[in-house]
Amino acid sequence: MEKLIFFGLVIPILFFVLYLGTRAIMSGVSAKQANQANKDENEIDENNNEESNSDKSLSDELEKLNELRESGVLTQEEFEKAKNKLLNN
Which of 12-16, 38-42, 58-62 holds the top average pLDDT? Predict the structure, then answer.
């Protein structure tokens, strides 16, 4: 009779506890993967923003150089040197 109570009650409870533990672990792993994916996405977005900002600043600098050349502050030779310096960096 005691064995019947043991197998009838304790074993199912043990399996249920193991099931809950496994589910909790799997849920934690899924959350960690989702967090890593979001982190990677944010890094990609930041890199894209930095690239677009550097492109804008380069075009702004070239426009300023062109304005200086057109106004006569820079000669064509100085303009070409400054432009090459910006483009090579």
Answer: 12-16
User: Is 17 buried (19+), middle (13-18) or exposed (0-12) by CB count in 10 A?
Assistant: exposed
Do 65 and 83 touch, CB atoms closer than 8 A?
Answer: yes
Task: Determine the Cα–Cα distance for residues 77 and 81; give it in Å rounded to an integer.
Answer: 6
Q: Check: pTM over 0.85? Answer yes or no.
A: no
Reading the block at residue 2, the tokens are 């005691």
DSSP 7-21: IIIIHHHHHHHHHHH
Q: Is 75 helix (H, G, I), strand (E, B) or coil?
A: coil
